[in-house]
Amino acid sequence: MRPEILYPFFADTISLPGVGGRIASLLEKIVGRKVLDLFWHFPVDIIDRRSCPALTDIKYDQIVTVKVTIGSHDIPPKGSKRPYRVWCHDDTGKLQLIFFHARGDYIRRQLPEGEDRLISGKVEVYNGALQMSHPDYMLSPDQQNEIPAVEPVYPLTAGISGKVMAKIVRGAIERLVELPEWQDKSLMTREGWPTWFDAMTQIHNPASTADLLPESPARMRVAYDEFLANQLALEIMRLQNRRKKGRALIAKGHLKKQLLDNLPYDLTGAQGESLQAIEQDLAQPYAMMRLLQGDVGSGKTVVALLAMLVAVESGAQAAMIAPTEILARQHYTSLSQMTEGMDVTIAILTGRDKGKARQKLLTALEAGEIDILVGTHALFQKDVIYDDLAFVVIDEQHRFGVEQRLALSAKGQGAMDVLAMTATPIPRTLTLTAYGDMDVSQLYEKPPGRQPVDTRTIPLSRLDEVVQGIRRAIKSGTRAFWICPLVEESEVLDLAAAEERFRHLEHIFGDRVGLVHGKMKPKDKDAVMDLFVRGDIDILVATTVVEVGVDVPEATIMIIEHAERFGLSQLHQLRGRVGRGPEKSTCLLLYGALGQGAAKARLKIMRESDDGFLIAEEDLRLRGAGELLGTRQSGMPDFKAASLEDHGKLIPMARDDARLILEKDPELKSARGKALRILLYLFERDEGVKYLTSG
Ligand code: ADP
Ligand code: MG
Questions:
Q1: How far apart are CA 384 and CA 347, in angstroms?
Q2: What is the CATH number of domain 50-147?
C-alpha cells in the first residue's frame, strides 16, 4: 500500500493550478500524468532578473528589471502591421516597449501614461537605442516581490510556453512535503547532501547556473536516492527469488551425454564454465535468475539447450522465448537438429499458430508430452498451460523488462528458474542497474576456428564496384546480406530506400534477390528468409530486421549501406550475421557523407576491432548510456532524477548500501526501513514491497 503521505504526489496534474484537460494531455507526452512526474522535470537553464541597471548603463542585449516612467503610446492605425510602441524613461535614458499583434486597450490599462512601472525582460540594443519586445513582467513598483529574482527554465513541449511550464511546475513543487529521512546520516554529512525536501526545493529554485550542474549536492542527493531505490528493488527481488522454495533440478546426465556425443564440436571453456554455474543453480532449492552474456556467435544456444535438458532429465518442462518469429523458428530448427535421434520432444508456438493445430499443441503441452516449447511472447498467453514448467530461457534479454520477467515466473508452479541471454555486451554499471537481481555468466571466448570478418569502409560513390564484386562472389557460391539505411527513424522512408535498392539489385541479379522489412507480415518475411537460408536467393536486402540472431552460415558478405547512420553496437550486431561458417567473410561499410568526427570514429573502430565488449565501451563513450541501448526497447530502467553518464559512479555504492540495508533489516521494519519503503514508492520501484511480509 502506498504511504498516505505520498497521496498528493500521485494526484493527476489536472489538479494543479493552470492545468486543464488540454495542457494535461500535452504534459503527459513529455512529463507524465502525475504531480510527482513534474518533480523530476528539472530546469535546464535560468533567467536571472537580478540585474537592475540605469537605462544609460545598458550597452548590450541582456535580461534586466528596470524601474521606468511610462511616456507616450504610439498606436498603430487599424489594420496596420506596425507594432504597438510605448515610450518610457528613467532619469538616465529611454526605452521603447514593443508589442506585436497587440490588444491596445489591454496595454493602455497596463501602462498608463505618467505612471511608474517595473519592467522585466530582455533588452535589445539597436544603434544605441533600447528596445524590449513583450516584457515578461510589467508591474507597479509595490509589486516588486512578484518578480522572481531567478527563474528556472524548463524543457518544453509544443503548446506549453516557458512561462506556463514554470508556473505549472511551481504549483507541483508547492505540494512537496518533508519526508522521513531514508539516507544514512553520516553519508549525508560526508557528502554534504541536503534532505530530499531541501534538495528538491533547491533544484527547482536555482540561484545560479552552478545549481543546474549534475554534480551539485542537491542533484547528487536525489540521483543517489533514485539509484538506491533501484538497487533496493532489485535486491528485494533477488532475495525473494532466493527465498522462494524452488525446485531442485538435478541433472541425471543421460541426455547431456547423448547431446555432447552428437555435437560435431567440443564446448569451449567458457561454455563449460557457464553450464556448470547453471547446473549448480538449478540443483539448488531456490529459483535461478542468471544472465548469460555472450557476443554474437559465441554459442549461447547450445548452452541454453544443455540447461533445458537438465530440466527435461528431471522430468519437468522447459520453454525458450525469442523476441521475433524468425528467431523463434531458427531456435526451433537448431534445437531440433541438435537433438535429432534423442528422446526429447520439442515444439514451437508463436502468434501465428491458430485454430486446431494450436489447440492440439496446447493439449499435448498440458499433458506433458512436450518437453521443450520454443516461441515468442505467445508463450505468455493465458491459455498456454504447462504440465510442469520449471525452467525458462529468454533469448535477447534486452528486449524484456523486469515486468515480463515477473509475468513469466507466474507460469510455473511456485518458483521458476530463469536463464536470460543477451548478445549485447553491457558495461558493468549498466548491468548493475538493469540486472542487479541476476547472477551473470559470460561467454568470454568464441568457438575456435572463427576467422575475423574482413571489415572495410567504402564511399557510396563506389557502389558500382561493390556490385561487380558481389557478382563475382556470388558466382563462386556465396550469399550476401544487404542492409539498407536508417532514415531518420522513419519506417516509411526506410522502407522506400530498401525497396529502391531492391529494385536496383533485382535489375542486375534478377530473381536471385529478396527483400525483407519490418512492415511485412511475419509469414511473408519468413518465406523470403527461408529462400535465403536454403540458397534459393543469393542476396537478401533488408532493413535492420535481421539484426538479432539469424543464422545463415553460407552468407559471407555483409553490406551495410549508409553505415555512418548506425550505432556501433548495431553495426557490430549486423556484422555478427556473417563469419559464422568456415569461409572467410567480408563486411563492407558503405558511407555517404561522414560529417563530423563521431561517425568517422565509429567506422574506424569497426575496422579495427571485433571485440563486442570493447565496442560497447566505445559506444558508451561516443554516445552516452541513455542512447546506448535505446531505453525503450532495452529493458534498461528509465531514470528520472539520475543520469547514468553523470551519476553512474554512485551505482556501486547504492548497490552495497542496498545489500547491507536488507541484510540488517530484511523486512524494512526499522524506522529507517519504513522511510526506505517511502523511497521505493516515491520512485515507483515498489513492485517488490509486497514480498516484504510485515506491512
Ligand atoms: P549466439 O551466441 O550468437 O546465439 P549460436 O548459439 O547461434 O551463437 O552459435 C553460433 C554458431 O557457433 C552455431 O553455428 C553453433 O553451432 C556454433 N558453435 C557453438 N558452440 C560451438 C563450439 N563450442 N565449437 C564450435 N562451434 C560452436
Ligand atoms: Mg543466438
A1: 13
A2: 2.40.50.140
